[in-house]
Amino acid sequence: MAQVRKRKVPREWPCVIVGAGAAGIGVARALQEVNVPAVILERHEIGGSFRRWPREMRFITPSFPSNSFGTLDLNSIAIGTSPAFTLECEHPTGRQYADYLKSVVEYFHLSVQTGIDVLSMTARPGGGFELETSGGRIRAATVVWAAGEFQYPKLRPFLGAEHCVHNSRVKSWKRLAGDEFIVIGGYESGVDAAVHLANAGKRVRVLERNSVWSSDASDPSITLSPFTWDRLMETPDNLIELIDEVEIERIEKQRGGYAVIEASGERWLTKRKPILATGFEGSPTLIRELFDWREDGVPLLNSVDESTVTPGLFLVGSLVRHERLVFCFIYKFRQRFGVVANQIGQRLGADTSALQKYRFWGMYLDDLTCCGSECVC
After folding, report:
1. CA distances to 47, 60, 148, 206 from 100, in Å
2. Among 65, 73, 150, 266, who pairs with 49 as Cys (CB 3.0-4.6 Å)?
3. Which residues make Cβ contacts (< 8 Å) with residue 211, sequence separation at least 6?
4. Are 80 and 68 in contact (CB under 8 A)?
């Protein structure tokens, strides 16, 4: 983990939240509603992952100040707030959204300790947890893991991947030198990279192993969002080539460039390092032994988003999965804030009746049978 400035924090808390992003701040506000003292530990700054997005990257989910009509802004993480209202922007950049998160922390006086790196975490035999941090040892009755995934990319998805650059490590697409690129991965981050490169006048070939662009699914977690389709259609003609059903076997560095080699033997040549848009390992791998794991590589959770092997350890954020349901957007994973806060509050003897309003605002989804229905037209 990163080397950061040390600060001292109180040694015992009813709840420690790891990560001051959308999930961590959102669940902290829910816990505040039921008077459960909680501290958020953040190794960088509030909204650190969002501040590290490429400069051109924007939210694909639109923000709109619709709260007064009983519909919470899709990118809001706290009742009564709206990124659209705060930022005066429909599709905020990462930096703008981080400013919104900071404003939520300040307005609700949430307890956040920045510059604190969690070095290790162990479950205590009698219950609770002990966290070794750069600010000292901390004990917690419960822990909410909200450290996200953006800062933990998949860097070795195949042989030779060290010759590539992961999309999360790019500061600005328009500033990349070169006039032609290969992007490996064709979901949102891959097509987002291609669009920005094309808008900068660069030719891009996108290689994807699945048939993402011909999918008839309506869930933007497994296909492209309307915002991305719009941008893709508006890019300059002939600058983006989409190639699906490509299984990359390896990357080879060659004289004057790189060869991207498919399992069938087909080769694509490029002068610039290929762009990896192959996803993220996710931060729960840092405490792997405290979770059981599903076959698709995400933590196995019970019905209240708690580790199935470590009682008192909860997961919130984009890596929450239940069967085939993927909660990787804010408007999805915020629906579990009330469920987690209710469970922690009840275990600590708190009155959780204040969370009933979370149901009205779509932030307390405990019946998952209503999810998964596709659009008919």
Report:
1. 9, 16, 18, 33
2. 150
3. 244, 245
4. no
pLDDT along the chain (377 residues), means of 10: 51 96 98 98 96 97 93 97 97 98 98 96 95 95 96 94 97 94 96 96 95 83 91 92 95 95 94 96 94 96 98 97 93 97 97 96 91 78
Spans of all domains in the chain: 12-151+280-370, 161-276
The answer to whether 206 and 192 have CB atoms below 8 angstroms apart is no
Asked if residue 26 lies in contact with residue 77, where contact means CB atoms within 8 angstroms, the answer is yes
For domain 161-276, say whether CATH 3.50.50.60 is its number: yes
Strand blocks (E) in 80-163: 112-114, 118-123, 129-133, 136-145
> Cα–Cα distances in Å, from 10 out to 6, 42, 128, 188, 256?
13, 15, 16, 41, 55
Please give the pLDDT value at position 373.
76
**Residue 34 and residue 351 in contact, taking contact as beta carbons nearer than 8 Å:** yes
Going by C-alpha positions, the residue among 354, 302, 358 that lies closest to residue 335 is 358
Instruction: Check if 12-151+280-370 and 161-276 are the same fold.
Output: yes
12-151+280-370: CATH topology is FAD/NAD(P)-binding domain (3.50.50)
C-beta atoms surrounding 94 within 10 Å: 21
Q: What is the DSSP letter of 299?
A: B
**19 within 8 A of 146, measured Cβ to Cβ:** yes
d(CA 33, CA 181): 49
